[in-house]
Amino acid sequence: MRICLIEPFYSGSHKRWADELASRSGHEIDILSLPGRHWKWRMHGAAITLARQFAARNQVYDAILASDMLDLTVFLSLLRRECANTPVALYFHENQLLYPWSPRDADTKNGRDLHYAFINYSSALAADKLYFNSNYHREAFLAALPEFLARYPDFENKETVAQLEAKSETLWLGMDLQAYDAHRVENRGVHSERPLFVWNHRWEYDKNPIGFFRILYQLMDRGIEFDLALLGESFEEAPPYFVEAKERLGDRIAHYGIVAQFADYANWLWQADIALVTSNQDFFGGSVVEAMFCGCHPILPNRLAYPDHIDVSENQSNFFESEAEAVDLLARWIETNAWKKPSTLGEAVKRYDWSNQIERYDKELEALGCRARPHSTP
Length: 378
Prior knowledge:
Blueprint: E1 2-10, H1 12-24, E2 28-35, H2 39-57, E3 63-67, H3 72-77, E4 88-92, H4 106-109, H5 114-126, E5 129-132, H6 135-149, H7 160-166, E6 168-170, E7 196-199, H8 209-221, E8 227-230, H9 240-249, E9 253-256, H10 262-271, E10 274-276, H11 286-293, E11 297-301, H12 306-309, E12 319-320, H13 323-335, H14 346-349, H15 354-369
Parallel strand pairs: 1-2, 1-3, 3-4, 4-5, 5-6, 7-8, 8-9, 10-11, 11-12
């Protein structure tokens, strides 16, 4: 089958997922994309630009797979002739109904943030099939819709939630985890006297760096020693709490800022001992899965997508309910030298590797393509 994969925000994890799916699939997948910047404008205007590009290709596709950044209703309205018989699926990497906006964002203060959630909602209605990258994501999105729709003055259409649920499935994020094996470090921590923490997320509000640093400062106040690899995107002007952390943590920081080469990034993950996570939102948590695969002991909040990855009841020492509990938990991990023991949780996330996911993706795409309505004769 020939599939058109549409990605208005072709950057970062969205780009990796699209490229890796296209290169591994047994189907022929063409990527139609725009650069990954100006996300609000992409959700508003990308549908117009991409619809024109789609029409210019003059190509008949068996199915379309679009990411959640596309306003599917606008896209399809502009391609009524070209896509009249083409089934369409929407893949949710994230959604704007549940995404925590920065308090500094003017749209939040002016009440304009709801529109982006409505784009997700209306696009979901227009799609033939909905895929979510985790069970948490699917369940949380559907559960939040009734309250969201209740904000409108009348004709709330709450009955549509059941319709969306009926065509929704979890399709786990495929990842190239095997690429990390070439950089594996053996006997980690054996000769170390203190653990190496790793932060390998974006330096942004939704990852809750303030809470992360707050926990580390409390460990310092207790006299507990550690080092930190502070990876991830760094800006021309780093957020003030990162600058403060650089000053307060001093020589405990083994690395500060972006790691440009994949080999260097993978090497840091294999060297690190503990992956402390404090995020306010992770619909899947790819960076957490990467750290776990590379043998880091995850210390996770008992919320979001993390219980999808490892069973909470069987791994209670890896989950916390509050920052205070996280501090106590980490203190025990460090003082008992539990951090020196090899982690076995990497096995639990191997299922996300493309070698274990691509067959399911191809079956779903084939089933989607079979939904195509026959072309009418003139």
